[in-house]
Amino acid sequence: MRLFRAFLREQADPDTFYGVLAEDSVRQVARWADLDGATVLDVGGGPGYFARAFRSAGATYVGLEPDAGEMVARGVPEPGTLRGSGEALPVRGGAVDVCYSSNVLEHVRRPWVMADEMVRVTRPGGLVLVSYTPWLSPWGGHETAPWHYLGGAFARRRYRRRHGREPKNRFGESLFAVSAGGAVRWARRCPDAELLAVFPRYHPWWATWVARVPGLRELASWNVVLVLRRRGS
Predict the structure, then answer these.
(1) How many whole angstroms separate alpha carbon 192 and alpha carbon 194?
(2) The pTM is what?
């Protein structure tokens, strides 16, 4: 509930939201991987909201962000942050122990290319964890929700008429319709990684089953998490 309440304040109070999310991110990853001494690549890490939390767990944190404006959203860019595209990560293959991405996949024009890249840069036996908002979830349209159910372009136009400006997340440019089912299909077909788990991030443990039900997971997940292990030795 604390995570969900913080989520509702994302745009009004991003520092609080991302601080809570960073703590949760470290807990999530630590369930599957030992972070002490691990190298973590945070794809789409923005201004480095998660850096302190991962470093406090003993990890070497490397952020990657394509948008120069996002990199300096809190002032000086986080030391060690790379600027580059998630669809062509400027990192050699097998270089990191953990490749992590939170709330980024729905903002990428070719999400499965980015997902493949995350697997590529992870060492054999390493962990890939992707968390994102499915399009048909209640928050799929982000600040244009719930009007995205009538179409992303319609929701964008309505927001522009109502507020006199474009939304931060512009459908077709910086926001795309990514499904939960599409992510699961990609993960199951990925030859270089094993799917370990899929679950809804903001749900209590007893409701995690919704992410395993086709159709229902699109509407009821809010945020889907995929956990994969890189194959190989």
Answers:
(1) 7
(2) 0.90
